[in-house]
Design brief:
Strand order of the largest sheet: 4-3-2-1-5-6-7
Number of domains: 3
Structural class: alpha/beta
Number of strands: 12
Order of helices and strands: EHEHEHEHEHEHEHEHHHEEEHHEHHHH
């Protein structure tokens, strides 16, 4: 029987990688839904290639263009995520949620009840709304797997193990393009330099976050939520080759090191084929890399974004939404050439200490609207504070 699949964010890098994997198993999969924001051209090609009958494209202009292109064809086209109940008549087998940013929050939570398994690649959703996601997963008996290589590696290593058996977990970070750059030169970094990640091909936003190590701050918050660990049990190590993705030190003295090729195809493949005998091509174990892991503690002077972790409360709060929103705004300002590279983190560390934002440490998100309200408030306040 064919696996019924939906992909939220099919035109992004995760969505495209998943579709490449599924091409090799076309006879056993039925792609029920693809979604995108603006990229109607790629979405149109994906529809044709994979014989998809339902699509959601949220940008109004792109929606109108796609409607014209698909005129007189038996394909349902929607403009928002309120249409899930029209698309899914019963639970499907698998959903990949890979819409980037806060935009992925509403569709991720809404689609949980329509699927048996959901793989989530959206950092912001897990960071800001894990308690809401967890509630929906439990209520609808939906199985969850994280997609990020670090969190997938931890999930793979920790399946069915109680948190009390875990002494410490370590997430690895390549250190991005500036790991060994003279610190004085960080003041003069331009956009093209910041986007040149040494190991991964990613979008602009996540490439900048990787260079500042802000993405690793987000991943620590995710790991804390997903694996129900205190922040004291989670650390970051720089690891330039990105071959090892996570390490676990157990209370019984054993250590697990989880490594795989530097490609997202491996964690993506394993989120969909957990119970099957399917195999993916991978390289032989890289002995040279294992002999030169070069794991190190993070240099906080070089990567001051790590200081953010000291400010976050143990219990999930709306303060995490503040941090996500502030970082989003500052990265965009850098990409628009309105602030310097080294100001992304320096301004952020000041802003998140303002009283107007600190109050959110005591507030827990109770519904999606709480998080969206915080995001809007952060935008409003930062425009005032930075005189934008």
């Amino acid at each position: 029987m064919k696996k019924k699949i939906a992909i939220l964010g099919s035109t992004g890098s995760i969505g495209k990688n998943l579709l490449k994997i599924l091409e090799k198993d076309k006879s056993n999969v039925d792609i029920i839904l693809l979604t995108a924001n603006k990229n109607y051209k790629l979405l149109y090609n994906q529809i044709n290639k994979h014989n998809v009958k339902n699509v959601i494209i949220t940008n109004k202009l792109s929606y109108k263009i796609l409607v014209k292109k698909l005129k007189n064809r038996n394909i349902k086209i929607f403009n928002d995520y309120s249409s899930f109940n029209l698309i899914f008549k019963k639970k499907i087998d698998y959903v990949m949620s890979s819409i980037s940013g806060i935009d992925g929050l509403i569709p991720t939570i809404k689609i949980i009840k329509y699927t048996k398994k959901i793989a989530i690649a959206n950092k912001e959703t897990i960071i800001c709304a894990w308690n809401l996601i967890k509630k929906e997963l439990k209520k609808n008996k939906t199985f969850f797997i994280p997609v990020d290589s670090e969190h997938f590696s931890l999930w793979y290593a920790l399946q069915n193990l109680p948190s009390k058996k875990i002494e410490k977990i370590y997430l690895t970070a390549s250190g991005g393009p500036f790991l060994n750059l003279n610190k004085q030169k960080l003041k003069k970094i331009n956009i093209s330099q910041a986007l040149k990640h040494p190991n991964w091909k990613m979008g602009k936003k996540i490439s900048i976050d990787s260079s500042t190590l802000m993405n690793k701050v987000f991943e620590v918050i995710e790991a804390k939520h997903i694996f129900e660990l205190p922040y004291s049990k989670i650390s970051i190590l720089t690891h330039p080759s990105s071959y090892v993705h996570a390490l676990v030190k157990f209370s019984n003295g054993l250590v697990k090191i989880i490594a795989h090729d530097t490609t997202m195809k491996i964690p993506i493949f394993n989120t969909i084929f957990t119970d099957d005998n399917n195999k993916i091509f991978s390289k032989k174990i890289d002995i040279k890399k294992l002999n030169t892991l070069n794991l190190r503690k993070v240099d906080i002077e070089r990567f001051p974004a790590i200081k953010v972790l000291k400010k976050i409360p143990e219990k999930i709060s709306l303060y995490e939404s503040v941090i996500v929103s502030v970082n989003d705004i500052l990265v965009n300002l850098f990409l628009e050439k309105k602030i310097k590279y080294n100001q992304i983190v320096s301004i952020m560390l000041k802003l998140i200490n303002y009283r107007v934002f600190l109050k959110y440490k005591k507030l827990t998100p109770k519904k999606i609207e709480d998080i969206i309200s915080v995001e809007n408030h952060v935008v409003y306040e930062i425009k005032k504070l930075l005189k934008l």
